[in-house]
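Entry:
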Amino acid sequence: MSDDNKIAPITLFVYNRPWHTRQTVEALLKNEFAAESDLIIFSDAPKSEGLTEAVRDVRQYIRQIDGFKSVTIVERETNIGLARSIIEGVTEVCNSYGRVIVLEDDIVTSPHFLTFMNMALDRYSNEPRVWHISGWNYPIDPEGLPDAFFWRVMNCWGWATWADRWKHFQKDPQHLIQSWDHKKIKRFNLDGSHDFWSQITANASHHINTWAIFWYATIFERNGLCLNPTRSLVENIGHDGSGENCGVNNLYLPKKTPMHVAEFPMVISESALAIQKVQHFNKSNNFPLKRLLGFVKRVIKKLI
């Protein structure tokens, strides 16, 4: 990166898992651009008395964090839930910095994660079709794929975006339900191979309260594309029963790669091969749509 390019701030959302938070931060500190990055941490308050001690332990730890360009901590006085915390926090940081890298407290990054994020943010900052940079990818067969590719789907386990894209974020499930036809829903569902749409309807019926599916819907409605590394640059360590998001099949939890992304796509268009590989992965691992709805309800259960 040239000296003219700015390093994006890292926004970290934490709650009640001190061990996971420590793993996330220690991995970040091994990244090349850590010392040049501003770290903004949003700490939600406990939603019940039984979680007070764990939240206090997390806050004691984050107050001691060093090694970044700066560390800013926002401690919520009341519990607002993960969805609202991320929506408001990302909006606040985007408004101040113009771009953002986002992590939750259970995402352990490769040492090349920040390099990939910052290079991609610089490279595609003026490309209106590119809306989102992902750090995670499905554990697909990488043969035939470049280091990174574009496609329609948004992954939220370590990601980045720009303020001029994020400002369009909208969480309105009823609007989507009323305005999308069957053909659009099928395309949203990766041509019928994955039931993303059930998350929209589950939010509409208040069975779950999430944010990420609406960022995907926002991007999708505007024909935006997301950049993905072919091999995951992050590892999710949170599916161990320690948090509310648990029960994910281990097939979705690849180990992060030690490799860095050396080449970026020259042409901004969706990779048909990458889509085929993800579709094959889902079908070969037996994730039918009805079962996936139950999977979504178990995994993404964050209430305000």
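The beta strands are 10-14, 38-43, 70-75, 99-104, 107-109, 130-134, 148-151, 159-162, 225-229, 234-236.
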